[in-house]
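dumping these here so i dont lose them again. two proteins, back to back, each one seq then structure tokens. dont judge the mess
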Amino acid sequence: MVVMQLMAVFLFCLIHLFAGKLRFLDAIPRSRWLSFAGGVSVAYIFIHLFPEMAEIQESFSESEGFWLSLEHQTYFIALIGLSVFYGLERLIKSEHAGDGLMKRIRPSVFWLHLSSFALYNGLIAYLLVHRQDDTLTGLLFYAVAMALHFLVNDYGLRQHHKDSYRAYGRWLLSAAILLGWVLGRYTELNESIIHSLFAFLGGSTILNVLKEELPEERKSRFIPFVLGIAVFAGLVYLH
């Protein structure tokens, strides 16, 4: 299992380091491969993340303590994750307002945006070790879905930050993945904290997937998007 985790980590890192060389992803309308990857990510959210969040909520409900005994706190944490990344997206949009994507983003905003995604990547890698579904099949589904999710995120970050992302951002995000996995291997947080991190990841992933597919300027492709959903859903139900 450790070898499989390490292979997934290297795949995640390679995507950030070299996805910029995949010129066919820069097509307009949006590359069908990016829309397919977005569809897989959405399918993973609804088929895997939501049921696992329901299990987490059940475990919270059975725990003692004021916070853990509240109703729906799993979904509240997920909402926080979604809101945080929505705020970041609005901040970046405001930086581009007026001059389009050619406007240079302030360094402070660039580093805030990249640091947030570094923490996000590190969290994904940490939960690669501490997943709800600790089977080999669960690992494979998680690795494939997150790899395609990283591909979509990488494209969006390159569009926002251009040369700054190529020079610094991709290396930072790759290092965060490796660090997150190492922390996952050699540290183990309280189960309630891990569950809270998983819920936060769920909400964050929902926003980060949909913000890349839904805006009109993305000119997303519907059929590849739906095909990605169908393929991933079919694999899940056939395994």
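---- next one ----
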Amino acid sequence: MNVFGFAGWSGSGKTTLVERLIPEFTARGLRVSVIKHAHHGFDLDKPGKDSWRHREAGATQVLMLSNDRWVLMHELRGAPEPTLEEQLHLLEPCDLVLIEGYKAAAVPKIEIHRPSHGKPPLWPENPHVVAVASDAELDCPLPRLPLNEPAVIAGFILDYLDAQ
């Protein structure tokens, strides 16, 4: 599986860009999966629902399924967070895995940088950033991609992966 990441400060537009890139890749016949790393807790379940009650009762895993989808929820219960490599092994084979977050992971990534947010760029300190997507002109030695043109960014990613 090809793996490509996106890094940037909170609110920079990582999720929006990934959301806009997925149709670009699927239109080219690629099967795409996404790993999103959250620095804060999250819950897909709702208090009071059967699956929530099972987890609250102490189940380590709860698998829910219907004729439309299935989801496996796994409670860490104090165990360490799985590594990115371990998470990649959980995915079914696909053509491309997009990683949102994991700034320090050793995968090629595009930094989403908006100078108007007042945050410093990540690329000077992160050797895994191979390009910067922005909505402004930047003084940067890396390729700069137009943040609002997902087709251009998708082309860059596929060209980059083909060259590796």
